[in-house]
Amino acid sequence: TDSVAKVAGVAATRLPEGTVEKFAGPFRSHTEEALRTYTFELAQHLHDAVRDNRAEGEGVDQFAGVVEAQRGSAQRKAGSLARQEVGRFAARIAAERFGSVGAHSYVWCTKGDSRVRPIGEGTNNHRILDKRIFRWDDPPIVDSATGRRANPGEDYGCRCHARPLLIRP
After folding, report:
1. With the C-alpha atoms ordered 109, 114, 119, 125, is the resulting torsion angle positive or negative?
2. Exposure winner among 14, 73, 114, 132, fewest CB in 10 A?
3. Per DSSP, what are the bridge partners of residue 10?
4. Element (H, E) at 116
5. Is the pTM of this model over 0.85?
6. In sequence order, which residues have a C-beta less than 8 Å from that of residue 37 and are 6 or more positions away?
7. Where are the beta strands (DSSP E) in the chain?
8. 8: pLDDT confidence band, cut at 50, 70 and 90?
9. What are phi and psi of 149, to 5 degrees?
10. What are the two backbone dihedrals, phi and then psi, of residue 113, each rounded to the nearest 5 degrees?
11. Which residues of 56-74 are buried (b: 16+ CB within 10 A; e: fewer)?
């Protein structure tokens, strides 16, 4: 059965058929590229570790420690990548859902904790976006160095969310 949610007094039904599939392809491609890049970096690091192990005349025990550390690092990276991609996908679906009921704008909301990207640290700053209004189809610049734009939850490591605004005529 179709569930109905209330957004500012407007009934929002399920997304149109095929919406998830429409976004799945690009996200799958992005995830596969991130995995390929990380796999190459991991293989290169292990290659360098073998070379260093031989050059320094270390034994198998020392090398086993390096491999074990890499395994832990790979597991953390995989978890981080999975959280990132799920968050990006959920943010895009939310944008589609809110737009379908006329909420074309939103308020950028950070988590408001110490992990929010601080003012003055690099160019990827979400603290300055907090409580500002943006449109889904015109996301703010999240990286002034590259001009990259994103909605809440779509940027790397972003824990922010959008509070939809339904502006009535």
Report:
1. negative
2. 114
3. 7
4. none
5. no
6. none
7. 5-7, 10-12, 105-109, 133-135, 141-143, 148-149, 161-165
8. very low
9. -115, 150
10. -110, -175
11. eeeeeeebeebeeeeeeee
